[in-house]
Amino acid sequence: xxxxxxxxxxxxxxxxxxxxxxxxxxxxxxxxxxxxxxxxxxxxxxxxxxxxxxxxxxxxxxxxxxxxxxxxxxxxxxxxxxxxxxxxxxxxxxxxxxxxxxxxxxxxxxxxxxxxxxxxxxxxxxxxxxxxxxxxxxxxxxxxxxxxxxxxxxxxxxxxxxxxxxxxxxxxxxxxxxx
Length: 179
Known about the structure:
By secondary structure, this protein is of the alpha+beta class. The chain is built from five helices and five strands; from the N terminus they run αααβββαβαβ. Helices cover about 35% and strands about 15% of the residues.
């Protein structure tokens, strides 16, 4: 019997997929405003509903997770949802969503932990949020200061600026997105 332990794809839940949905959503505002310069008559004020975009993002994540679960199931993969803990050389304990603990043995164990965003150890860091929290803010911020000039920082800067927020991007080097 072959068992596969899968730590659910961070990209779908807290990574590129939800971020790309926000990027696409943010791109429409400036495009609609610019359309006036190309003959489009946009007579009414263009409004943006942050909560509706977040709901659509959540619906897409649920939809994609359903597709991935079906693909895995159809391929004969048994999916264990919960928190996994290696408890021996060939044993994994899974605490299921309802708190039940189950133990499984396998010849090979694949650990795919992903990563988590972290706050830098600086004064005031408790007032900051990470990119994880940024994907689910209750309200669209009016003014944002982003610490960092990497790809994720620049993407979030473009998301919030595209949705009308004032954005300050702070980075160490001469330019953002340096290799």
